[in-house]
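To fix ideas, we reproduce below one chain and its tokenised fold.
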Amino acid sequence: MANKSKLGAEGGSRVVSFRLAEADRAAYLAKVQESGLSQSEFFRTCVLQNRTQVVARPKATVETKQVLYIVNKAGNNLNQLAHRTNLDHLVGKVDHHTYADILYQLDRIARYLKFTLAHVD
């Protein structure tokens, strides 16, 4: 999903489409793939910023992809733990001290994962 700040205050609320001949479409898709951007990001970059040359993002290594996969899985599990802890706290199964301690630990893990991602490759 695109970052809302990239899409303005309204978000991605309007679709813009256009037609291309098959050969032009193939050339367009090749440029999109080479750029490493989504089709929407590529189009916005070219049209809205008047850029006709898009600098390609570096291709992720196999190791980077593996780290991203693991961090995404961990993030999903952390989110489930936080949600469950919050529900249990609301119904009185978890006292305030334990609740605060769990949230603190989850926050530390999240910060560590973000720090790690910033230093991959």
In short: Residues 62-90 form the longest helix (29 residues).
